[in-house]
Design brief:
Layout (H helix, E strand, L loop, with lengths): L6 E8 L4 E8 L7 H19 L2 H17 L15 H35 L11 E9 L2 E9 L4 E5 L5 E3 L19 H4 L7 E6 L2 E7 L1 H8 L8 H11 L18 H8 L13 E4 L1
Antiparallel strand pairs: 1-2, 2-3, 3-4, 4-7, 5-6, 5-8, 8-9
């Protein structure tokens, strides 16, 4: 239709604590104010963590992670360590889960509240602001990187290890057999559902090559089906595509010193794919 772009994104590094946040939101095309909804959602997540994850709060979590790393191999997911690692580790694990649930969960609730208030003030229905929401909060430690995540909707978060031999999908997608299968952060039932605790992700990884957040405007044409997101081979193909293995021979040089990286990525995202004309957002940490 050539109408407005409804996606939005935000990112920030918090120097006082060493944490970083990356947020992506996909406003529903059928919702008349979703462009504002996705913008408000991304901004609120950044604002929340900027004020809430203080040096004291971060310091307390640092201790939990130091204890965790000393007890548990970084090669395994936290869900595999709830038995056989000792009472102290279990207690520590429950504290980590509580931190994630409280802080990331509250960030999501604050987004919902912000959208609710905006809708009321502007005489809009809350559904007019329908937007998906994914975000990743991460920090580097001496023993590796900690990545925390949250997701509502059909946007994936992928974490690839350093040598790209393993993939961790940091969230599950709300998808159905039709477009109405997705869920949005504007839906109050998200927070009362028994599935709410499963919307959080946690990974301690020695090092990683890429952490990616994307909207369906990217993954639909590049991964085609949801199951492809769980296959390391498809991610390797995706990386190769970004590195120039595409019809247009457009390459993104992943080098921090590359001053053209934003323009290169923008050019790459202008790929043509029949039937796929959705808004495209791709956030990459490398």
């Amino acid at each position: 239709m050539g109408s407005y772009r409804d996606d939005d994104y935000a990112f920030k590094y918090f120097e006082n604590t060493g944490w970083s946040i990356v947020v992506v939101s996909d406003g529903a095309g059928s919702a008349k104010a979703s462009r504002k909804g996705s913008q408000l959602a991304c901004k609120k997540v950044v604002d929340y963590f900027e004020t809430t994850i203080t040096e004291q709060v971060s310091g307390e979590f640092d201790i939990l992670m130091q204890n965790y790393s000393s007890e548990i191999s970084t090669k395994n997911d936290s869900t595999q360590h709830k038995s056989g690692v000792g009472e102290n580790a279990e207690t520590n694990n429950s504290k980590i889960n509580k931190f994630i649930y409280n802080h990331l969960g509250n960030a999501a609730r604050e987004v919902h509240k912000t959208l609710e208030e905006f809708a009321k003030e502007n005489k809009l229905a809350l559904k007019d602001l329908h937007s998906t929401l994914i975000f990743a909060l991460y920090k580097k430690y001496d023993f590796g990187y900690v990545v925390l995540s949250f997701g509502v909707g059909d946007c994936p978060i992928g974490l690839l290890n350093k040598d790209m031999t393993a993939l961790k999908l940091m969230n599950w997608l709300d998808v159905g057999e039709f477009g109405g299968g997705t869920r949005f952060i504007t839906m109050p039932e998200i927070f009362t559902s028994e599935k709410f605790p499963t919307r959080f992700g946690f990974k301690l990884i020695e090092d990683f090559s890429y952490l990616m957040l994307m909207t369906d405007g990217i993954y639909d044409p590049k991964f085609v089906v949801e199951s492809g997101l769980e296959k390391i081979e498809k991610w390797k193909e995706f990386i190769a595509d970004l590195q120039g293995n595409n019809e247009d021979k457009i390459k993104v040089e992943f080098n921090a010193a590359n001053k053209e990286i934003a323009n290169q990525l923008s050019s790459w995202m202008d790929f043509w794919n029949p039937g796929n004309h959705d808004d495209r957002t791709l956030a990459i940490v490398f």
